[in-house]
Specification:
This protein is α/β, with parallel strands linked by helices. The protein is built from 14 helices and 12 strands. Helix 2 packs parallel to helix 6, helix 7 crosses helix 10 and helix 8 packs parallel to helix 9.
């Protein structure tokens, strides 16, 4: 049996497939499992994963549609028995990708907030989305369509770092002594207005300035440059260090050697969980029941407002429908996060 895993868009989405991949390989060790990736950071996440037989990387998002279709037809079509669209691949493009493989079994989800235009009819075996389940649990449901009924403890998220990579992470941090080391991620995906998941940079700064003896490491890419530079410029204890120009695996190796990670709902939040780093996760419109840190010590910081969480998986962008826009995030004060830090570091 040959399995193809369709591409995932986000780092967190990819990491949340790793427990299902582990169980699939455990129960069907003779099956060949190939994973298709279209973004290099996601390809790097799956690198060295013993539950994957082959990684296929092609930058679909950087190519025109004709080139992408030709690549699929030449390299993937009629090569697999099953194509899996793991949760939450609820876009038309992923369903078309699955169909173009012409796998006999094309499995995925029927979403509650979807439409005919998402082309989920191109999948011939589907599970129903369940609002009470985490994404990791949703992905395990798909295994039932392959005859795997799993009832044991669900594995953690995983990224398989080499010892050399871990040692380089330690080396990076060795000059910062024995101080408590806390990572911060001020960002989130900007896709479909997800920038509205971000806690204000002024709030992160207030948390940093509360602690004189802790070291804070600011993670991110060009997307978080403005927030990170603001914190660096205005920190009063000069206890911040910018971690940039790092690959996803280098980032993971540094994070693995920290004491705590503070983040919005983001891919790096899930990466922290994958390296077993305790997490304080700040949630506003999105639902921690679906995407909270999995399998790691963590604390969710959110306001239990009547209108939140309001985000659902659909093609529509994230939006707030109340007058006081994103009140669920804007009313989370720095003191609430400081209290969470104290509790986590006990």
């Amino acid at each position: 049996m040959k399995i193809l895993v369709a591409p995932q868009f986000g780092i967190g989405d990819a990491l949340m497939t790793t427990p299902a991949l582990e169980i699939l390989k455990r129960y069907r060790p003779s099956w060949k499992i190939d994973v298709f990736t279209m973004k290099k950071p996601i390809n790097d996440i799956f690198k060295n994963n013993p539950n994957i037989d082959n990684l296929i990387h092609y930058p679909l998002l950087e190519k025109n549609k004709l080139s992408s279709i030709l690549f699929i037809l030449r390299n993937l079509t009629l090569r697999y028995d099953v194509t899996i669209n793991f949760f939450p691949s609820n876009r038309r493009d992923y369903n078309i990708f699955s169909f173009l493989t012409l796998s006999k079994n094309r499995i995925g989800f029927r979403y509650k907030n979807s439409s005919f235009l998402q082309f989920d009819f191109l999948l011939n075996k589907k599970c129903e989305e369940d609002y009470n389940l985490h994404c990791v649990e949703e992905n395990l449901k798909l295994l039932k369509l392959l005859g795997i009924e799993y009832k044991g403890d669900i594995p953690k998220l995983s990224i398989y770092l080499t010892q050399e990579e871990i040692d380089k992470g330690k080396e990076f941090l060795k000059n910062f002594g024995n101080a408590v080391k806390i990572g911060i991620h001020t960002g989130s995906s900007s896709f479909k207005s997800h920038k509205n998941k971000r806690w204000k940079k002024e709030n992160f700064l207030e948390v940093v300035n509360y602690y004189k003896d802790y070291m804070f490491f600011l993670f991110g890419t060009e997307e978080e440059r403005q927030e990170n530079e603001f914190i660096l410029k205005n920190s009063i204890h000069q206890n911040c260090f910018l971690v940039n120009n790092k690959t996803i695996r280098e980032t993971a190796s540094i994070m693995k050697n920290l004491d705590l990670f503070i983040s919005n709902d983001s891919g790096l939040m899930h990466l922290a969980a994958a390296v077993n780093l305790p997490v304080i996760a700040i949630f506003g419109p999105t639902n921690p029941t679906w995407v909270g840190p999995w399998g790691v010590k963590h604390k969710i910081v959110r306001l239990d407002l009547e209108c939140s969480p309001c985000f659902v998986y659909s093609p529509k962008p994230l939006e707030c429908k109340i007058e006081e826009k994103f009140k669920c995030l804007n009313q989370i004060t720095p003191n609430i996060v400081i209290k969470a830090i104290e509790e986590m570091l006990l």
